[in-house]
Every structure is written in structure tokens, then in C-alpha cells.
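Now for today's protein:

——
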Amino acid sequence: MDNVIGGSRASGARVNDILANDIPANDIPASDTQGDWPVLKPVRTGIRGRCPRCGQGHLFHGFLTLRDGCEVCGLSYAFADPADGPAFFVQCFGCVPVVIFALVLQVQADPPFWVHLVTSLPLALVTCVLPLRPLKGWLTCSQYFFKAGEGRLASD
């Protein structure tokens, strides 16, 4: 617990109990939700779909819908706006190779249409749908970690 947000070390058993999830979410006082929290890596919390502040609460309600806030630490997810970032990465790293595979298969073997239905289509679905949730979680947690916000012009 050497690294904490706010520059000071987290002390006391209260934060440790919250992080260990020994305290129900509704028993956490408001002062604890605003206190120092350990710095958690966005990759670890985001891919698992956990809260970027405490690492315990859930990030998603359903498959891709962000919750309003963390049920453990009370962090509001109103800051989160991954927009179409996850879809962009999935298209670049998932869809493009599958389309290339389907085109090469078609040019080299000229198979009937049903072969694409049992090879290319399932491959496209797996490479497009499965990475969306971890990528959205990672981008959301990265926004919290790096304090990302809308671009603003410096006032003169």
C-alpha cells in the first residue's frame, strides 16, 4: 500500500477492510469514499471489469453497459466515456485479420459459401465480440487513472 492516490500512504484498517471487501458497501461512510485509495493499474482492473479506484466493485451491468457507480467504494462512473474506442481496436486487431483470412481462403480454395459460414463467420464473431468488454473496461479504467477529460484550451 505504498502507492496511493493523493500522495500519502493509506493507513488504518478501515481502508484495508474495504479493499478486502469485509465491509458491505452500504456500511462505508462517505468520508471513506473520498479518502486515499491505492493506485491500481488500468490493465488489471479494466480487463477484469472491476472498479478503477478500489478494484473490488463491478464496472459493468450486463455485457457492455457501464454501471452508474461502484457498489463498494461509491465512485461515480460519470467520468467514463470510452465512446467508440473499443470498437476501433477490435476492428483493427480482430476484424482485419479475419477479413484477410476469408479473402485468402476464397482466392486460394474458392470454397462454397457454406465453408465461409462455418469458418469465417464464427471466427469474425469471436474476434469481434469477445474483446469488446475487456477493452471497454481497460479504456474506462485508463480514463480514471490518467484523469482524462475533454480537451480544453488554455485561457490567456
In short: The two ends are 40 Å apart (CA to CA). Residues 42-146 form one domain. Confidence is low (pLDDT under 50) at residues 1-33.
